[in-house]
Amino acid sequence: MDHFLYRDGALYAEDVPVADIAAAVGTPFYVYSTATLLRHYQLFDEALEGTDHLVCYAMKAASNQAILRTLAQAGAGMDVVSVGEYLRARAAGVPGEKIVFSGVGKTAEEIRVALEGGIRQFNVESEPEMEAISAVAQALGKVAPITIRVNPDVDAKTHAKIATGKSENKFGIPIARASAVYAHAAALPGLEVVGIDVHIGSQLTDLAPFEAAYLKVADLTEKLRAEGHDIRRLDLGGGLGIPYTRSNEAPPLPLDYGALIKRTLGHLGCEIEIEPGRLIAGNAGLMVSKVIYVKSGEGRDFLILDGAMNDLIRPAMYDAHHDIVPVVEPEPGAEPQPYDIVGPVCETGDTFAKGRMMPPLAAGDLVAFRSAGAYGAVMSSEYNTRPLIPEILVNGDQFAVIRARPSFDEIINRDTIPSWL
Ligand SMILES: *Cc1c(COP(=O)(O)O)cnc(C)c1O
């Protein structure tokens, strides 16, 4: 559920007509709904009611500080995967003790910054990383709280590029080696082992892989406790999927996910952390774009938009489907026709949809890509020297530009020409 609905024939973001934003900032742009962000955060928070828990928003999904502050003010912690994200979360006002640091390649410098600034825990992904964290902590006279990410070898049944919980993936340590690795961690002077971490992938549309993974984590908790480790915190990762089409998909609800967590792990008395990203931000954002041309081709018509793969790469990268809707609601009798919907970038990969049934559209019409709030703006680039598109946050009847479109001068002046030229 989201807050992007038609009213009197016009698409609104909460109480703001999307066309008004387009008139103010130009196209293309991203627009997020505060009410949708908060609702999705609250669904997770309520799903874990009755257990000691923290919802750590995986900020790589959408990392604008206005989004982070919105969620942090509601009580969210953050899951970060780089020191850049760590500093951004801090700048948005998130305290270090509510930030967990994930990722397979944390450098000594990243570890130092997080330890000095304050961190809830590092989610450690390998033995060399464990040694590096211990060494940095010791040099600073600190002790680093850690969990170790275990790879439970379950098939998340999602797109290959975003599955992370099979033994062939680069993430975590094999669960079969956990005893040895936890013993190693316990022997390192700069570490305090506080728990276990697991994250099996993204856009999961079935609870069964979560259940398989969490049952393994439950067994492992008891085993490690028997071996003398104080396992008191379980970080269960993110990954719950969202509907990308309005028609046929019904991914599990956070409430059912929470019930599964309580059922599989509740008896252990651990503090629970979860790291949802996509489900909080995905359906809280649109990418709005304008039709530049309608071009008739051989047996097909192309809608050429001013948005492109550099602005929203998910279709090109993950074969992702986004519902695309006109900003002016189609007349009831409008006969849909198939379009190939493309951007202006010089690659055939710059195709958002093929043969998509849409009401008749003309140059100048606005369209909105639904479910574009997660892994949209954050993955955009300036390929083809196309400026990063602005981000807008709506709250009730107000809206604000939360990242402005850079000028061409700003982009061009980032280059430096060496003295010999
Ligand atoms: C990407 C990621 C998440 C968030 O995944 P979503 O599918 O967006 O919920 C959480 N934890 C880790 C470690 C991740 O890498």
UniProtKB/TrEMBL annotation:
Pfam families given in the database record: Orn_Arg_deC_N, Orn_DAP_Arg_deC
Protein name: Diaminopimelate decarboxylase
HAMAP family to which the protein is assigned, alphabetical: LysA
InterPro entries: Ala_racemase/Decarboxylase_C (IPR009006), DAP_deCOOHase_LysA (IPR002986), De-COase2_C (IPR022643), De-COase2_CS (IPR022657), De-COase2_N (IPR022644), Orn/DAP/Arg_de-COase (IPR000183), PLP-binding_barrel (IPR029066)
Species of the source: Ruegeria marina
Enzyme Commission designation: 4.1.1.20
Function: Specifically catalyzes the decarboxylation of meso-diaminopimelate (meso-DAP) to L-lysine.
Family designation: Belongs to the Orn/Lys/Arg decarboxylase class-II family. LysA subfamily.
Pathway: Amino-acid biosynthesis; L-lysine biosynthesis via DAP pathway; L-lysine from DL-2,6-diaminopimelate: step 1/1
